[in-house]
Input
Amino acid sequence: MISLGIIGGGLIGSSWAMIFSSAGFRVLVFEADEAARGQVLDRITTKLSTSASNGVLEVQEERTTSFFDNHHHHGHHDRKSLSENTAEHQQEQVNKCLKRISLVSSLSELVSQTFYIQECIPERLELKQALFKQIEEQVTSLGKHHLIIGSSTSTLAISSLVAQCASFPSANKEHDSDDETNFSRQCIVVHPINPPELIPAVELIPAPFTNRAALRMVQRLLIVSKKKPILVKKEVDGFVVNRLQYAILSEAYRLVHDGVASPEDVDSAICDGLGLRWAFMGPFKTIHLNAPEGVTDYCERYIGAVERITQTQDNSIHWDPATIQTIHQSMDHQIPPDQRTNAYQWRDQNLLGIIKAKQTQ
Output
């Protein structure tokens, strides 16, 4: 069976373990923290069980050859209709995935047995830089020069993560990006959206020097794992998803700060308004269908209003403590602190419902 590695068995790492094991891969997990190591398999089991009980766990056949050539796997999975999704079948699905997942005790063991590793340690630059240096040392020692490393970072460019590595290119020349023996060129940001096991979109952010073959390999890996890769062509702060998210968040904050609307009504404008169509079409498809002749017609009709309004929107507005507290108190009223665990379950159940609806499209 083809083996993938995961470094870090927390919430994100356990989600990747579920994703890759259900896609037919053998998954090796390295968790350096001994205290946390004992919780890893329990966390993965919970995620698998939740997806199985809701009928959205697709368990594919074991992958024993290159998944570039193994086309028969694509679209073949073991997911029953809701009427056939018995408790016995659910447990079979979970057990099938769990048999493919193992914990390893060292980084060298992980590097020696895998062709791809997903890094999932805490979001601290110095920690990630130190880890990438350690991986590079193991790759060099073991001669695993074709190993590809994906980082789950949500904010850091791969250029910064490998900046302390011996292989870091002295000049980021794109025409040098096909050297598969250079460790830094085999590294790429592979950023999931929380919760990763439920949301298909995954951002891919290569550096200017990233090996294009490595990028293509990761794209294929995500596709066979039932994910939707989003290629971010430049290393920009916030990538794509967070830049969109933060633009909306900044305007939502300003509407509350300026007394235009309450936090509850701003949230309602999304979840009872815009968000309903955003679940199945993005902003460009939305405007394409909002005018009889499509995008150009929409722009002829409304671009004046778009430009007039956006000129008043200053996304650099400072978040002051008083407004933050107003929003926090409103959210605490809706979700009391002692109900947060239930709220997470409520969120995931609603996401599962949307996923089921999209599967029928």
Observations:
- Residues 70-75 have pLDDT under 50 and may be disordered.
- Residues 241-359 form a domain with the N-(1-d-carboxylethyl)-l-norvaline Dehydrogenase; domain 2 fold (CATH 1.10.1040.10).
- The CA atoms of residues 129 and 163 lie 7 Å apart.
